[in-house]
Amino acid sequence: MTARTPRTRLLAAGAVLASVSLALTACSSSKDESTGAPNAGATVNEVKADDKLVALVPADIKSAGKLTVGSDASYAPNEFKADNGKIEGMDVDLITAVAARLGLKVDVQDSGFTAIIPGIQSNKFQIGMSSLTDNKEREQTVDMVTYFNAGSAIAVKKGNPDKIDPADLCGKKVAVQTGTTQAQEITDTRNPACAQAGKPGIVNDGDKFDLQTDVTNAVVSGRDQLMMADSPVVDYAVKQSGGQLEKVGATYDAAPYGIALAKGSALTPAVQSALQSLIDDGTYKQILSKWGVEAGAIDKSTVNGAVS
What we know:
Blueprint: H1 51-54, H2 59-64, E1 66-71, E2 74-75, E3 79-81, E4 87-88, H3 90-101, E5 105-110, H4 116-121, E6 127-128, H5 136-139, E7 142-157, E8 174-177, H6 181-196, E9 207-209, H7 212-220, E10 226-230, H8 231-240, E11 245-262, H9 268-281, H10 283-290
Parallel strand pairs: 1-5, 1-6, 8-9, 8-10
Antiparallel strand pairs: 2-3, 3-4, 6-11, 7-10, 7-11
């Protein structure tokens, strides 16, 4: 399974990787230089509040008028910082639309990925919107409202100079983001399989970085031979790399992303209902199309629907 994993400010969106002399910005493939969206000119419905859904919002949140959202802004195209420092991306647009349907604004705050769920538990954030995979382990501590399907994918330098076989990464140098499903995949699945086959494991159990930007940079610079990340992140990074990266193999282990909320939160049914309304009226698909990730669209949002 994937688990909101890595990120990269490199190909994130408008960020230039000076360390590897990348003259890239997300704007290079955009119709609008104000955003890193691949289809920035796409039309998105104006989202208006729905009185029936507004009535589901807990009184204290309704009174405050906003949702505080934790997000690791290094995971383009899902969430990242633009050149002006503003956090944007598919997840940001979706949670902004959900909030608007509930008559609320959003305050999206940059957070380390592994600090998001603890931040929800400590009431620092009301919501975590950061490509978090919905799995049984996470559902023990937070509620998860599903909103997107993603898998894991692998990217290498253009031309695959090291002849990387996605089915056999034994002995390879792999970059991953700390705390992600891909990092867990290495320690729990891939390296035990290497040991069983009598082969050397993935070096260091994977080179782990706090930011996905640094993960991507490690491959572009040649420090690591490949990176493992969520499929929309890998696809976007390849598109934005100016021909320096390519995807190898197919996307695998598809699983849903979830909006994270405090366990048993009275806000959970409001968020799920608002998201479903956006799916039903087409706004959801428009947002995904704007960011070029419509392949991950779902038809029905569920609460705590993980199967593993």
